Amino acid sequence: MATPELVQPAPEETPRGVPSVVATVGSRRAALLRLLASLVATMAIFSALIVALGENPIDAFDAFWSGAFGNKFNVGQTLMIASLLACTGLAAAIPFQAHLWNVGGEGQLWFGAFASISLILILPDGMEGWLAITITVIGSIVAGAFWGFIPGILKATVNANEVITSLMLVFIAIALGDYAISKLFPSQSNSTESVPFDRLLPNIWEGTLVTAGALLALGAIIVAIVLMAGTSLGFQIRAVGLNSNTARISGMRTGRVTVAAFAIGGAFGGLAGAIAVLGINSALVAGFSANFGFLGIAVALVARLKPWWIVPSALLFAALRTGSSGLQAQTGISSTVGEILVTVFVILLLAFGVIRLRYAEATQ
Amino acid sequence: MASVPAVRMTGITKAYGATVANDGVDFELAPGEIHVLLGENGAGKTTLMGILFGMVIPNAGEVRLGDETVSFNSPQDALERGIGMVHQHFMLVQDFTVAENVVLGSVSPFDLIFRRAEIERTVADAAERFEMDLDVGARIRDLPIDTQQRVEILKLLYRGARILILDEPTSSLGPAQIASLFAGLKQLSDSGHSVVMVTHKLNEVMELADRVTVLKGGRKATTVSKGEFDERSLARAMTGHDLPELPPPVPAAMDREPLLRVRDLVVHAGARLHAVHGVSFDLHPGEILGVAGVEGNGQRELLDALAGVRGVEEGSVEVGGRDVTGASPRQLRDAGLSVIHEDRHGWGLVLDMTLADNLGLADVATGAATSRGFVRRRRLKARARELLQEYDIRPANPDALALSLSGGNQQKVVLARELGCDPSVLIAANPASGLDVGAADYVHRRLLDVAAQERAVLLISHDLDELLNLSDRILVLHRGKILYQAPVRELSMDVLAMAMAGSAPEAA
């Protein structure tokens, strides 16, 4: 019965047009091999670039490695950036699973950071530190969720393209952040006033700058795993993402699922904003996000949208980031080279098929 | 068969990985004969013809044309030796004219621009020679499906094909169109062309075939000549066993309150206004109401509107006495309506989800398989196991992905889910399309079961045999209106065919 007929009768009206990310092709081992291959190729191109800049690639790699993992402190920096990337990765991954292209993680991150700094500085002085932190973290999550809710509701009600709407909201959120820095809570430097010391997320690893923000990120991963694997909403998000027609005709309220998936994605972005403000920078700093929101998309895709794979994926991208800082510190090569490195890596991930964009019609 | 056969294939073997599609198949085609290649889905028909047409390279075996052994590496090779194939999905450029499509591939693009008149004349001549009534200047996209098919055939003949392979050519045609296709094929065979028709429909074999070769499981089951076979013996050769007769339909309770009441329904289809144009009917307990019509006469829009995925412009729909006009699929489901959509992959299944998930879609949506927002996994799986067994779905593994199943088993999954909701009204659109005889028979029995349980089925189908065998009553849609309706016992195939073609029989 399983004999393949050559010309399969194509389904008449399969949903088509929008690519979906699917991890069905190839075994896990093959996927890891592909990932390794793209890492090796990235290093080769990176070496060529270093040689062209007149430096020794071996030294560069050494500097790179020590920047990411060279000592306890640097490992801590990598962990904190990974925490941000894990959250923005989830901000992309959950809507992506519903086949919704939330490219506005950067905006949800900024809006969350804006909410964080506003709340933490406005809450009355007499309030206990832990309470202020709790309120602020929850407030940032809600703010991020609201920033995700907007493209979600526009998609569900008037079918506005979520790529455009979520992207436009990035610019508004960044403008709001800049407004907070220059007008609402100005300070001497290029940032807002600092967060009072007792209202910062506590340090959890001596000798490093690792704070409870890392635990919040880990908690976010666990929430996402439970959401997708166990809950009715997660089930419906998957069903809508894989075939919204069938989901709809089976009685799922696809509009609500759309809004929910987007809002949940936004919530994770908002949490990233809180971690940045309360757990890393102690203020809202201009340009604090080195495109962490956008990098979250790559993190999610490399993790094939699976929440638990986001942990290694976020660590990998964080290491590329801290590594290039180390590179600049030790060899004087501009950290722009590090930016190029990340970009080349993402392109190669696509080329090697680690990230696959598949069209629904190609299922057979 | 004294003369040299036009084609002789011996010992053809083709394997895809572990699956053997053709296993030592012999096939012979005499000059001027119409040879039907019959078999269930996956029997290896398409592979065998793909090999003859150069699309598939066999692992072993010999292909001889006349006295000569050939080995084709591409369809181009086959075309050069006078073999042409009409695929199920036509290979026509929609925006080109008939003439342009016919000569495409045999003239240079420059000729197409500069010698239009001459080319049209040549093609018109060719059409006349083969007695085809074609407007060679018409654009393909404006032509009905059967005319497009004729263009495909002309294209091959124009290139000098003497051997024509047609893959399931009747799958989207109405009865009148099928009759005219068959007349055309007979004419071609009279003029010395050889025709191979791939099909799984038995009645077509009876009407057309000089000889039949039956494939089963990749092997040749038998080759028989006209007069040596009947539908029963062919069905047995195809399936390996006798199919028992379908039970007679239980008379519907026409006097009871209808379960589905549709009044003056108007449905739009995009820019083409009024795809459904004031349709009214009642569906009674125990009734199977057939909806016939040539494809594109409003069936799809009717289906989508009743399923709640396309807006109702005017009119009303009631399920079990409850007004559900314009209701969402969820509300319709709550009212007791289930839908088996004709597009199994697009609207019936989530191919990348497991069988347990697919079977549980509706239960998760309605909350029957959830508690406090969590999916009750164990319950979902247990229910799936039950359904897999009850509907004899293979593999009976709730963790298998839906896309790994054969078409017949996929359809059973849809059937199991939809009937598992205990609907009072089932809308089934082409529920057996693309299925082999055994699976189609199974689906039909299930539909009859539904009616026997005092529930009702609206059967929208382009398969007239299906409609005549299952329905109590048939209505014919033509240009979005009910052109004709009658109880099945008063209907004949001819009347139905006439109505579908748009001429309402007197009795209407």
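The CA atoms of residues 105 and 206 of chain A lie 31 Å apart.
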